Amino acid sequence: METPNRLGDIEITDPQAMRALAHPVRLAILDHLRRHGPATATQLAPDVGATPSVTSWHLRHLAGFGLVRDSEPGPDRRQRRWEAAARGFRFEAPLDPADEEGQAAARVLSQQMFRRYADLPSRWAEEVGPALDPTWLRLAGLANTRVVVSAEELAAIEDGIERVLAPYVTRDPAERPADGRGVLLMRYVLPEGSGEPGEPGEPGEPEGSGGPGRSGGSGGSGRTGQTGRSGGSGLAGQPRETRETS
Question: Are 183 and 209 in contact (CB under 8 A)?
Answer without folding.
Answer: no
